[in-house]
UniProtKB/TrEMBL annotation:
<protein>
    <submittedName>
        <fullName>Ion channel protein Tsx</fullName>
    </submittedName>
</protein>
<keyword id="KW-0732">Signal</keyword>
<dbReference type="InterPro" id="IPR018013">
    <property type="entry name" value="Channel_Tsx-like"/>
</dbReference>
<dbReference type="InterPro" id="IPR036777">
    <property type="entry name" value="Channel_Tsx-like_sf"/>
</dbReference>
<dbReference type="Pfam" id="PF03502">
    <property type="entry name" value="Channel_Tsx"/>
</dbReference>
<dbReference type="GO" id="GO:0009279">
    <property type="term" value="C:cell outer membrane"/>
</dbReference>
<comment type="similarity">
    <text>Belongs to the nucleoside-specific channel-forming outer membrane porin (Tsx) (TC 1.B.10) family.</text>
</comment>
<feature type="signal peptide">
    <location>
        <begin position="1"/>
        <end position="20"/>
    </location>
</feature>
Length: 257
């Protein structure tokens, strides 16, 4: 025990005297908290009435990311319907979602080892549409490129899912994240898009067949270095528990620390 304490003390001493940024290869990063309201289209709510019972909902999100000389990390944690009772009808109960993404650079080639984990949990009890979970793990190859103020990061990855109704290999995913920053009327704006296409899914996965699409297109106004507002068009096809096209508008207010 004494040796362990000495080791901890030595590491703390090194941390206090060394440049942590140089040690970790840290370059830059961000952290924010945002509040959101997702408004499903009338068609989506109507068609899902006898399946997933999609309802409009608010959610609070903690989000952050960092760039290093060896790669980049990103993640968020959401609480959906934060002010609702935990025991209520499906579509209105509390849900919890996390995502973490990593890209580990392969030298200066632009390519990177890509991985992400996305999980969502609905609680509690089957009586209230809860005890559902789905955790998607992707592992594959990515690429980073940019053209002026436009950046584009595609990837292709194998897909493993751990879900209430099926756990196992689930085909593969091709997708990207992209963004374009620009000025207009002396204000800072950005357009972003994340998009995922799932292929060769297992027949027991239960999201409308072998293939599916999931994503969002967003418009952001960065009003100050700390405050931003956004509108997102959320879309999915053969995904989110339903075998038809679903869409919604998400309204977001964001505070960056």
């Amino acid at each position: 025990m004494k040796k362990q304490l000495l080791c901890v003390a030595a590491l703390a001493s090194l941390a206090g005297t060394a440049n942590a940024d140089d040690f970790l290869g840290y370059q830059n990063g961000f952290a924010d908290i945002n509040v959101n309201y997702l408004d499903w289209s009338h068609r989506t709510e109507t068609k899902s009435e006898n399946t997933t019972r999609k309802k409009d909902f608010a959610y609070i999100e903690l989000e952050g990311g960092a760039n290093f000389n060896w790669g980049e990390l990103y993640g968020f944690f959401d609480v959906e319907n934060p002010f609702h009772k935990r025991r209520t009808e499906p579509g209105r109960n509390q849900r919890y979602t996390i995502k973490t993404t990593g890209r580990f650079y392969l030298g200066d080639s632009g390519f990177n080892v890509y991985g992400h984990v996305y999980g969502t949990w609905s609680m509690p009890g089957a009586k209230y549409g809860g005890n559902f979970h789905e955790v998607n793990t992707l592992y594959g190859l990515g690429y980073n490129t940019s053209f002026g103020d436009l950046w584009f990061k595609p990837f292709v990855a194998l897909h493993y899912v751990d879900q209430t109704f099926y756990s196992g290999n689930n085909g593969y995913v091709v997708g990207w994240v992209a963004g374009y920053g620009f000025k207009m009327f002396e204000e800072d704006f950005m357009i972003t898009n994340w998009h995922e296409m799932e292929f060769a899914r297992h027949k027991r996965y239960g999201n409308g067949g072998r293939d599916g699409v999931n994503g969002a297109l967003a418009f952001w106004w960065n009003a100050t270095p700390h405050l931003a507002a956004g509108v997102q068009y959320r879309y999915a096809d053969n995904k989110l528990g339903d075998d038809f096209y679903q869409d919604a508008i998400i309204y977001t207010l964001k505070y960056t620390f």
